[in-house]
Amino acid sequence: MKAQPPHRPDAPATPVARFRRPEDPEWHWLEDRDDPAVSAFLEAANAESDAWFAPLADLTERLYHGHLARRELAVHGLRTPLDHYTYWSETAADADYPVWWRHPNGKPDRAAPFLDLEARAAAHDFLELGDMALSPDERWLAWSEDTTGDERFDLFLARLPDGEPRRLLRDIGPELTWAEDNATLLFTRYDATQRPESVWRLPLAEGEAGEPALILREEDPEFWLGLGKTRSRQWLVLESASKDTSECHLIPAREPATPPRCFRPRESGVELALDHRPSHFYVLHNREATHFRLDVVAESRLDEAADASGWQALVAHREHHTLEGVDAFDWGLVLTERDHAEAQVHLRVIELDAAHGVTRDERLPLPETPCSLALGDEPHFNSRRLRLREESFVLPVSWIEHDLDSGERRLLKQQPIHGDLTPDRLTCERLWATSHDGERIPVSVVMRADLVGHPLPTLLYGYGAYGEVLDPWFSVARLELLARGVAFAVAHVRGGGDRGEPWYLAGKLEHKANSFRDFLAARDALVEHGIADGERIAAYGASAGGLLVGASLNLAPEAFCAAVLDVPFVDVLRTMENPDLPLTTAEYTEWGNPEEPEARRRIRDYSPLDNLTSAPYPALFLQGSWHDTRVPYWEPAKLYARLVELGTARGPTLLRTDMAAGHGGASGRFKAWHDGARQDAFLLWALGVERPA
Hints:
Elements: H1 15-19, H2 36-53, H3 57-70, E1 75-76, E2 80-81, E3 85-91, E4 99-104, E5 112-116, H4 117-121, E6 128-134, E7 140-146, E8 153-159, E9 166-172, E10 176-178, E11 184-190, E12 196-205, E13 208-209, E14 213-217, E15 224-229, E16 235-241, E17 246-252, E18 261-262, E19 272-277, E20 280-285, E21 293-298, E22 312-315, E23 321-329, E24 332-339, E25 344-352, E26 358-363, E27 372-375, E28 385-391, E29 398-403, E30 409-414, E31 426-434, E32 440-448, E33 456-462, H5 478-483, E34 487-491, H6 501-505, H7 513-528, E35 532-542, H8 544-555, E36 562-566, H9 572-576, H10 588-591, H11 597-606, E37 619-625, H12 634-646, E38 653-658, H13 669-686
Parallel strand pairs: 33-34, 33-35, 35-36, 36-37, 37-38
Antiparallel strand pairs: 1-3, 2-3, 3-4, 4-5, 6-7, 7-8, 8-9, 10-11, 11-12, 12-13, 12-14, 15-16, 16-17, 17-18, 19-20, 20-21, 21-22, 23-24, 24-25, 25-26, 27-28, 28-29, 29-30, 31-32, 32-34
Helix pairs in contact: 3-13, 7-8
């Protein structure tokens, strides 16, 4: 066991011993947030955590200030011109939040601020901007903000450039979209389980709000509503989607009072997304195409769109690639697609002539592999200069302008990095682990180039749910670990989307156990390839990644010397048995509905809290948030209490609950960075890299 901060023989009883209720060995009483004993228990655990971390305070501060010294604290966002004004954000060196600015196009000397989030945050412990929407004529700004962390938002409106903000509505969803009449705003509302179940239309005559009118309500508790607008600015799109089924409803953007028209009624298991060019809709879907295909429907045949046999194929289904997205421009399309074999995303440009013939079909170049590549914010429908966002483990976030006509690539902005550990001193590689069933699992690794060939203390990061991808990303904070000789690795397990749709399907529902076995296989591969010191590997998982790590620890508690579980989803069975909780019903297609005996058995067999044993668990740092509506605070709190009661861990089990935050943690960047430094201090201690003062 690693050295621990000093223990006082006269130390008071632990919070677990003081608050234990013999009649409730599962600690379910923690779910009653109105019970004063609950907050008292969490505060006591926080005090215990603070005392444990006290000898690491100097290390935490060095990590925090080292991180600050490596980044540009004064941040200037990329400028984006719209029809009349150019917009960008600026964050002062000592500020937590940005100020948004604009100037008339071509007149930078007339720049003026129009939304000061730093000032708005001054009266709150927490502030999150949900969405920000400009009216098409750029005279009005609407935005949604959350000041508690529970993801319930208030709607504000201000006349630009300097009108006084007015609160128009409370307790709505975050999403906002203007119709093209400059007088109608669309927004969502939640039901009792915080599901976006309805879309509303708010009339705004010269900023004066009328009565909201219901546009669409979704009765099925497994479906959520979202809203948007095509880049052509001709259609409002209302999407109703579960985890594996979706349908789209259309409203003419200039006639927002028109009743919505369903493009095609939902079909179980069929996902569908739309974009638009004048005269044509583009349908990205997986109907009889597991990895998705792209079809075209003439706008003149919209009334017949429900009959999919009339759709025309543009990009056929392929076995080795998944189509992930389509973005339409007046000249053609940009497709986002993923190579299954290489676990790499690509952008593909398709130009179309007036007869809808393909005149160009090519992939845009990659800066390196593996990397992240995405189409940036480009509001202009006719733009032939694409903005791309590129990054990797060794490439700081870069914004590139790619000229479709000349092929020229121009760097618009790159995240500056200061200090001695510059990106050129790092190296990244992709290795492949072999899982329990012979499947090859991609593992991405970054480390100092001068340490290659030496087994290193290693942090293994995992998520692996919902088909989300973990394409490589650059982290300034991570440089503090890398500088101290730690390797950082990502396990691209099944259940994520790193190798396309098949990868996701092979790690959900009855296949969920693959995710945990893949994570452990990635750990072993790091040792086998000589990258990791087998005695010094720590794990990190947040949210559903906490489930991944928690279940892996139950399977092989000796595999790691430590783990950080941040807002971890660990009480899976009990959560999925309670349809009144946010997210539960929407996630039946991810984990299963426990009312079905076989699904209940599967969930019971891997749910971390339901599979604890008297095993030698590693040192654990658990984190929760009091206002978290996605993973309630009681999930990490129960795990902490029950592990402490077991008393078989090889190291400390610590719990810290942020009493002023939600699922994403602190909203201010300095507090978030300091919280990250505390995590890193714990990891460096557990990995034997740093010792307490």
